[in-house]
């Protein structure tokens, strides 16, 4: 009886530890960003063939995207752990790092990236592996290692790894890129700086303490506000080009115009009221709605 009680206690303790390890990996792996990146990859797949993609290459492509993006996010958290310690916003991420330790996180990150690259190389066009390697290098080396600690414009070039998943998704389904795929790639490039600068305005003290030269710290807030509105102003016509020069329907164009106007007007009001957080949340809502609109428009033409 006692042995049974001791065994069940040990099993419960093991389960609790496993749950804590998984939760820590979720905190370190930027789940929202990774899932939204996978959604943008799926939108690239749908635009590649103008209908729902075949399930097999789509699943292999999404699995490769998820694993490599998750691994890249883990490496980013590892590389920034000394700076992240002074950021209140990242308290859970810092606790997760203490729980798991650098070797474990590096092993999981390397394993996820190798699994993702092997999946792409074994099952899909070689272009997919090349594009994923470019996204990995541009995020982990160019953005995280070089630009983010040094330049207030890091979010502009840092947009490359965030936009490449659209091309990764398209290449997983078809070797040729359609004009719509290129326009969606541009939409992601224009969307990311406003998305980040809104967050940076909301967490200015964090970035000041961490010594990260975000635009609102280097330039005065009016310059940042203008840069955000210019970014959104470029984003809206680019999203409409998926209809003007691409294959998306007029119904999509109407939806994209309404979404973009909502994003621009609400962001302008949010910045005018000196409360950037609602506009940051709206930037995510805007992107998820736009990607969903594209998928529905092409899946059911
Ligand atoms: C220059 C590129 C980008 C930068 C600098 C950036 C920055 C960030 C940061 C710092 C957060 C965390 C916010 C918080 O802790 O409250 C965040 C959240 C988020 N980002 Fe971005 N991001 C970028 C690109 C992207 C891309 C490409 C996507 C999707 C396609 C995306 C989707 C999201 C989502 C869904 C969240 C909310 C969930 C979460 O906190 O993980 N971001 N972004
Ligand atoms: C296929 C592949 C590898 C794709 C990469 C996709 C990906 C993870 C893009 C993220 C883009 C980005 C700059 C995020 C912010 O990091 P941050 O360091 O500014 O965020 P933080 O402040 O929360 O750490």
TrEMBL record:
<keyword id="KW-0472">Membrane</keyword>
<protein>
    <recommendedName>
        <fullName>Protoheme IX farnesyltransferase</fullName>
        <ecNumber>2.5.1.141</ecNumber>
    </recommendedName>
</protein>
<keyword id="KW-0350">Heme biosynthesis</keyword>
<comment type="similarity">
    <text>Belongs to the UbiA prenyltransferase family. Protoheme IX farnesyltransferase subfamily.</text>
</comment>
<dbReference type="GO" id="GO:0005886">
    <property type="term" value="C:plasma membrane"/>
</dbReference>
<dbReference type="GO" id="GO:0048034">
    <property type="term" value="P:heme O biosynthetic process"/>
</dbReference>
<dbReference type="InterPro" id="IPR006369">
    <property type="entry name" value="Protohaem_IX_farnesylTrfase"/>
</dbReference>
<dbReference type="InterPro" id="IPR044878">
    <property type="entry name" value="UbiA_sf"/>
</dbReference>
<feature type="transmembrane region" description="Helical">
    <location>
        <begin position="99"/>
        <end position="121"/>
    </location>
</feature>
<comment type="function">
    <text>Converts heme B (protoheme IX) to heme O by substitution of the vinyl group on carbon 2 of heme B porphyrin ring with a hydroxyethyl farnesyl side group.</text>
</comment>
<dbReference type="Pfam" id="PF01040">
    <property type="entry name" value="UbiA"/>
</dbReference>
<feature type="transmembrane region" description="Helical">
    <location>
        <begin position="180"/>
        <end position="200"/>
    </location>
</feature>
<feature type="transmembrane region" description="Helical">
    <location>
        <begin position="278"/>
        <end position="296"/>
    </location>
</feature>
<dbReference type="GO" id="GO:0008495">
    <property type="term" value="F:protoheme IX farnesyltransferase activity"/>
</dbReference>
<keyword id="KW-1133">Transmembrane helix</keyword>
<dbReference type="InterPro" id="IPR000537">
    <property type="entry name" value="UbiA_prenyltransferase"/>
</dbReference>
<feature type="transmembrane region" description="Helical">
    <location>
        <begin position="153"/>
        <end position="174"/>
    </location>
</feature>
<keyword id="KW-0808">Transferase</keyword>
<feature type="transmembrane region" description="Helical">
    <location>
        <begin position="227"/>
        <end position="247"/>
    </location>
</feature>
<feature type="transmembrane region" description="Helical">
    <location>
        <begin position="253"/>
        <end position="271"/>
    </location>
</feature>
<feature type="transmembrane region" description="Helical">
    <location>
        <begin position="33"/>
        <end position="52"/>
    </location>
</feature>
<comment type="pathway">
    <text>Porphyrin-containing compound metabolism; heme O biosynthesis; heme O from protoheme: step 1/1.</text>
</comment>
<feature type="transmembrane region" description="Helical">
    <location>
        <begin position="127"/>
        <end position="146"/>
    </location>
</feature>
<keyword id="KW-0812">Transmembrane</keyword>
<feature type="transmembrane region" description="Helical">
    <location>
        <begin position="58"/>
        <end position="78"/>
    </location>
</feature>
<keyword id="KW-1003">Cell membrane</keyword>
């Amino acid at each position: 009886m006692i042995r049974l009680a001791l065994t069940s206690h040990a099993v419960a303790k093991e389960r609790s530890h496993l749950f804590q390890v998984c939760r820590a990996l979720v905190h370190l792996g930027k789940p929202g960003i990774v899932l939204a990146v996978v959604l943008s990859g799926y939108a690239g797949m749908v635009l590649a063939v103008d209908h729902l993609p075949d399930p097999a290459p789509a699943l292999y492509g999404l699995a490769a995207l998820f694993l490599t993006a998750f691994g890249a996010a883990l490496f980013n958290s590892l590389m920034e752990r000394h700076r992240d310690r002074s950021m209140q916003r990242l308290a859970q991420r810092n606790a997760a790092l203490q729980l798991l330790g650098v070797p474990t996180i590096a092993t999981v990150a390397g394993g996820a990236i190798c699994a993702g690259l092997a999946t792409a190389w074994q099952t899909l066009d070689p272009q997919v592996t090349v594009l994923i390697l470019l996204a990995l290098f541009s995020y982990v080396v160019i953005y995280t290692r070089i630009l983010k600690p040094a330049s207030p414009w890091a979010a502009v070039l840092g947009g490359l790894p965030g936009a490449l998943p659209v091309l990764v998704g398209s290449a997983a389904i078809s070797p040729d890129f359609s004009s719509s795929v290129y326009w969606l790639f541009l939409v992601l490039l224009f969307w990311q700086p406003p998305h980040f600068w809104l967050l940076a305005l909301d967490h200015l003290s964090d970035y000041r303490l961490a010594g990260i030269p975000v635009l609102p710290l280097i330039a005065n807030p009016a310059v940042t506000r203008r840069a955000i509105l210019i970014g959104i102003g470029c984003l809206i016509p680019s999203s409409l080009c998926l209809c003007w020069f691409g294959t998306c329907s007029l119904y999509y164009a109407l939806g994209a115009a309404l979404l973009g106007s909502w994003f621009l007007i609400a962001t302008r009001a949010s910045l005018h009221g000196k409360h950037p957080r609602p506009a940051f949340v709206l930037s995510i809502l805007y992107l998820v709605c736009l990607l969903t609109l594209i998928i529905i428009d092409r899946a059911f033409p």
